Each structure stands twice: as C-alpha cells, then as structure tokens.
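Quick one: structure tokens for this chain, please?
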Amino acid sequence: MRKTIVIAGASGYIGSNVMEHLKEEYDIIALSRSTKNKEDEAHITWRSCDLFSYEQTREACEGADYAMFLVHSMIPDGGLTQATFEDMDALIADNFARAVSANDIEQIVYLSGIIPKESKTLSRHLKSRLEVERILGGQGVPVTTIRAGLIIGPEGSSFPILAKLVKRLPVMILPNWTKTETHPIDLREAVQALISVVGAESLYDHHIDIGGPEVMTYRKMIEDTADVMGKRRVMIDFPFPTIKLSRLWVMAVTGEPKDTVYPLVESMDHAMVAKDTDGVKQGEIPFKEAVEHALEEEEKQMSGGGKKKKAPQQYTVRSIQRFGLPDDKSAAWMADEYFEWLGRVAYPLIQTTKEQDDWEIALLRPSLVALHLSLEDAATDDMASFEIDGGLFAKLTEDDKTGRLEFRRLPDSDEGLIAIHEFVPAMPWWFYTKTQAKAHLVVMWLFGRHVRLLGEESDEGDQVVEAPTN
C-alpha cells in the first residue's frame, strides 16, 4: 500500500519540486492557504489550510503517515503584519507539531539551514531555523532535519538574489562577507535528499547537512555565475564588515522585499559548510552546471507564464508579540491575567468582564462593548484561543467571525506568545493603522513588562523561602 505524506508549503519553491518526485511512491496531501487555482490529480489532493490556525492544520493533516515542513514567514502576507518572521515561524511550527501529534503521524521531515560552529552568534534567520526544529520536535514526533546552505534553483530566495546582483551590477563592491565560505547544492539534489529520509527510522531525531561537491566563497560564486551568464564584471574588494549597508544595496539592486533580504544577508556572515553528513547522499552536480540549469529553468518560466499578478489589498490584521513567562504560568493563566490586567490599568476608559469562559472588552461602561471574545476550546497549559465574534471594533464576516486572539506557551521554553489572527477592524483602515493598531503594540509591551515583573517578584520570593536560617 502507498503511504500518505502531508506537505506544509506544497505550493512553494521547494514543495512543488518535491511533490513531482514524491507522487511516484506516495499519496500526497498538499497544503496551501488558497486552493482556488489548484486541481487534484493522481496521488495529489489539495487541502486549503491556514497554518496559523491549529484547528485547520489538525483537520488538514488527517490521514497522513508522514509530514514534511517546508515553510518560512520571511514574506508576510497582505494586510497589516505586526510580527517578526521568527515569531510567525514559531507559531506555525507549534501548530504543525501539535496537528501531526494529534493525527499519530510517524515522522516530520524539515528543511533547515546549515548551522555554523559559532552558534552563539547566529543570525536571526539561523536562530529561527534552530528554534523551529526544536518546536517541531516538542510534541514527541520524531523529526529528521535536512540542513542545506544555498540551494541553486530558478526560484526561492538566496540564488535569485545573487543572480540579480550579477545581472544588474557591472561594477561590484565586495565587502568582507563575500570571503565567507558556503556549500551550495543543486535544487534537484536537495529535493532528492529530502525524499530519501522519508520513513527512514534510523534517521529519526537526526539532523543531516547536505552540500554539493564544492565549498566556495560568495565571491567565487559571483565570479562563476558571471562566467556562466557571459558577463564581465569588475570586482573591487572592500575590506570592512558592512552587513547593515549590504542589506540596503542588495534590496535596492534586486528589488526584493526587506523582509526577505535582511535575514538572508545577515546569515551570509556565517560559514555554512556541511559537517554532519552521515546517512544522506551528498550532491555531485558542479556549481556552474547547477547555475546553467537554474537559469535555463528561469527562462522557461518567464517565457511560459510571465509576471505574477499582484495580490489584491487585504484589510486583515496579524499581530504577534513574544515575552518571557514564569515557569509555573500557563497559557490559560496568561489569558485571564491579560484581561484582568487590562481592566485594571485602563479603568475607567476600558472595562473587562468575564462570563463563564468568554470575555468582553468595553469602553467607559459595560454596555458599550468594543470586542466580544468566545473561548474556542477548553484552555490548556499550552494554548487558549478566543474567537473575536462581536463588538463595535470588529467587522463581522459572513460566518459572524472576525479573527482570533490566542495565548500560548511555547514548548520546552520560558516564553509565551499573544497573537491576533485575521482580525477585520470595523473602523476605516487608514484610521485603524494610525490609532488602534499602534495602541495595541503599546498595550502588549506594557503587559509583557507586567508579566516580567511578576516573574521577578516570584523569583525573589523563592530565594527568600529557600534562604538558610541560623
């Protein structure tokens, strides 16, 4: 019998290539936020899934034997996003890990980045990749992590940025980070590495580095890419660390968004060379050959499809804040503490009341309800999620809902998240973004400070109790 594998990020750069090979041996559940332009085919079933929703993710993973996580959040979706990519990735990974565990799935295969030896000074991008790996394994399901450096392919992030720099800059100023070594690998071989570990029990709870046949500096990659393109480029060494300045000129030259460029350029200061390579075949395609293939595929895509249409403006809000959480405090405690604290510090402007498990936030008097929030399921130590289903500040959709407010504790950590998802404000969008959205960030900062002080008071109390007496 064919086994079934569920793929988060199936419509992305890596996911679409992985599916083409996996469908020969597996039935695939392909997850995508929108399936409007997706059609099922032999051995591939598309399921619409918002990975920020645990319930949707749990339902979408039903029937799978294995899971593959090929997602990152460095490109925010439409609307207003008040969250770092690290916090968005942590929340998505937590949902996916819980969903996989709830469906008794045997293994998670995860694509990450090569972690350099100097792991104490990692870039934000690599720190996030490590955190996601930890969170995916936090629910007891074995995780097999494939760690790759720069993947040479026609889409994605890193290589297209490098290729655009070579195409558009006849004179290139090369800062110190271009002397950093990395270990590029052809997309086709990275895909084969991912496929090869599915169901491999000997590699459960292992991470494996992959790379091609050549370890190269970024300067050497630029030179070889220019050679493949048939372009002569003047290269001038600039012997100073200029990561912050490099982020700006890379963004300006390539036209790529800040949310993508900044984390990737910051990571280029680290040597990313494969070290732990046991159990997976390493790449054999030379760098120049990989570049030729990537450029040919890019040309085919451009001639066949043209430019992607710009997504329409969305008027939804996603906001995620992270802060320290005392060891003995749960997500359920966090939710109650937040509403009670808000009613205390903002009284009489804001008043909060609780009816059974639901909360109301009112302005000036209890009858003037700004938001009504209903608990979705019983709150747990790890998660408390509320539907925003009414109030003057909420614009209800066709299903009488307008987003969620979630409180969660990240597994095996002393950190909590408070997140708003898919909230649709009732007030005019321009006015909301200048007022209520900014006020929310201030409130979250103050609540984080409040929780931190509670934790410090608790620690001081423990020290007093444990102090020896004469």
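The mean pLDDT is 87.
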